[in-house]
Amino acid sequence: MLNYVLSRLLTFVPTFIGVTLISFAFIRVLPGDPIVVMAGERGMTAERYAELEAQFGFDRPIYVQFWDYLTGVLQGDLGNSFVTKRPVWDEFFALFPATLELSLCAMVFAILIGLPAGVIAAVNRGKFFDRALMSTALVGYSMPIFWWALLLIIVFSGNLQWTPVSGRIDLLYYFPNPTGFMLYDSLVSGQSGAFASAVRHLILPTIVLGTIPLAVIARQTRSAMLEVLGEDYIRTARAKGLASKRINGIHALRNALIPVITVIGLSVGTLLAGAILTETIFSWPGIGKWMVDSIFRRDYPVVQGGLLLIAVAVMIVNLTVDMLYGVINPKIRKR
Amino acid sequence: MTDIATPAETDVARPSALREFWFYFRENRGAVIGLWIFAAFAFLALFGPWIAPHDATAQFRGAILQPPAWQDGGSWTYPLGTDPLGRDMLSRLIVGARFSFFVGVVVVSIAATGGILIGLLAGFAPKWVDTLIMRIMDVILAFPSLLLALVLVAVLGPSLTNAMIAIAIVLQPHYVRLTRASVMSELRKDYVTSARVAGAGLPRLMFITVLPNCLAPIIVQAALSFSTAILDAAALGFLGMGAQPPTPEWGTMLAEAREFILRAWWVVTFPGLAILVTVLAINLMGDGLRDALDPKLKRS
């Protein structure tokens, strides 16, 4: 097992360096000079330009610049935002809980509905229920989620007035935000109605962001279950008279879960990509919206740093999934 | 059903590959429906401007935000209503089909050609080249696809062409992995060894002996990434980083319509519906292709 963990960790290193290289290259392949962009409309004197060039290290050889960037990254130094002048690292971790909270809710939503739906479809293979569920899943899988979000807003915020359109909580509530997780903070603040407001703000973004993972999980659970249900040990379990609920729910599902967990892990990248659209539409103050805004504001250090941190986050999740996979399925470790 | 080989005929000859494929593809009713919708979509993409009742960019000042024909205030001159600038929704949707179709075709061609070539190279090359290529692909895959495409477009400048290039780059690693994996498993087989012994050169081995046997999963992937490409291009358009107004690209149309969502449901509903139906049809077709081409699932 230790060998397996170590070998997985070793492949992490070159990928990390590659990801750093791409985000490093980003600011240098941009059309135009980043210093000129930073100066904006006013322009700057030649001395000031040289000073800034030296400050950012643009006057030094490219490999030295990369080495500085890499060592800086490892110490958590990603530069400062052009716009707010605050360190990119701090901004990222101030906004990260919002995205994490939304993603976790979306994932829980997707698993809570997708897993049972997949099991039910597999057990009722070929019947009406199976067809209806899988057709719905295919529609969900094909859904342009930005449009889905707008439709939900029209129906639930516009016509029914049940949910708010944007933000994380109503403006009348104000309390310190120690963890950054609105559900927790609003609950701890003790203000009546704050928690309910936070929940109502979460509902639509959660559904929108969770739709595609939900469809993927349902489809994957169904096919994994179908495969497992054909195995000999299931027939044995049936032959010895176990209740079919127990067979489906425990014997089969446990083995069917292995590919499902992989899919769940792989959905994290999809979630972050979806978060870009979801957060933009619902004005959710998280990483996705921050990245889009920064791209439009040409705030290059933020785009560069955010790109790197998001990629590293995805890599860490993938690595964790790989390890979990090794824990659940001993066959993998031996390779 | 009469054209399937009866047992007596099977002794003589197997049905042609295409006929066999069609037999299994036809089994899947959803796939056939998907194929018909896709055919209609392709037809609109090719002949859209001649079918559309109005010019897609013509602004009818007298008919701004007119509802669809079946609603109060609608008229059959503009069957699906008009947008905030008085342009006919139906015409824009019909003409818009060609942008999505074009995106799908171009992105899949670039990504598949590049991906297959690199994948073949990785499969045949010495170990260190293979490792290098696969690590580079890992790096690209570490970024969420839409984010990477968004940043690439920010670098290249927002336009439909750049959006297509960005999406192709992001989708390419999937082809590389798929091709490499199939090549690896094919290389161990006897027919490759015998071709090698018979003196086949490297290019012949790569493109004539091995590649045709790796194509099935790649074709399925091509169908699936066709729909991904359409979705991503629409998403980029929606974020203002794809096709630019007044191009009637469906995602861009949605972006333009956003502020009217609570006043005029039709300007938001129809472009999205067009994207959904197209993507759904292609995915249905992809499922059918997979069932028909993947020998492992074929006769189960």
Automatic annotation (TrEMBL), chain A:
**Mind telling me which Pfam families this protein's record contains?**
BPD_transp_1, BPD_transp_1_N
Can you tell me where the transmembrane regions are? Answer: 9-30, 92-120, 132-156, 198-218, 256-282, 302-328
Q: How does it sit in the membrane?
A: Multi-pass membrane protein
Q: Where is the ABC transmembrane type-1 domain?
A: 96-325
User: Transmembrane: present as a keyword of the record?
Assistant: yes
Compartment annotation: Cell membrane
In terms of InterPro entries, this protein maps to: BPD_transp_1_N, MetI-like, MetI-like_sf
| Keyword Cytoplasm among UniProt keywords | no
Gene3D superfamilies of this UniProt entry?
A: MetI-like (1.10.3720.10)
Domain of life per record: Bacteria
One GO cellular component this record assigns the protein to is: plasma membrane
Q: Which GO terms describe its molecular function?
A: dipeptide transmembrane transporter activity
Question: Which coarse location class applies to the principal site listed for this UniProt protein?
Answer: membrane
Q: Which UniProt keywords apply?
A: Cell membrane, Membrane, Transmembrane, Transmembrane helix, Transport
Q: Which family does it belong to?
A: Belongs to the binding-protein-dependent transport system permease family.
What's the name of the protein? Answer: Peptide ABC transporter permease
Organism annotation? Thalassorhabdomicrobium marinisediminis
From TrEMBL, chain B:
State the annotated membrane topology for this chain: Multi-pass membrane protein
Q: Does the keyword Amino-acid biosynthesis apply?
A: no
- What domain of life does the native source organism fall in? Bacteria
**A single BP term in Gene Ontology:** protein transport
Cellular component GO terms, alphabetical? plasma membrane
Concerning CDD domains, the annotation shows: TM_PBP2
Query: What stretches pass through the bilayer?
Result: 31-52, 99-125, 145-171, 218-239, 260-285
GO molecular-function term, one example from the UniProt record: dipeptide transmembrane transporter activity
Key words, A-Z: Cell membrane, Membrane, Peptide transport, Protein transport, Transmembrane, Transmembrane helix, Transport
Provide the primary localization. Answer: membrane
Which PROSITE patterns does the record associate with it? ABC_TM1
The listed locations are: Cell membrane
Can you give the residue ranges of the ABC transmembrane type-1 domain?
Answer: 97-286
- Tell me its family: Belongs to the binding-protein-dependent transport system permease family.
Q: What is this protein called?
A: Dipeptide ABC transporter permease DppC
Taxonomic source organism: Thalassorhabdomicrobium marinisediminis
Show the taxonomic lineage: Bacteria, Pseudomonadati, Pseudomonadota, Alphaproteobacteria, Rhodobacterales
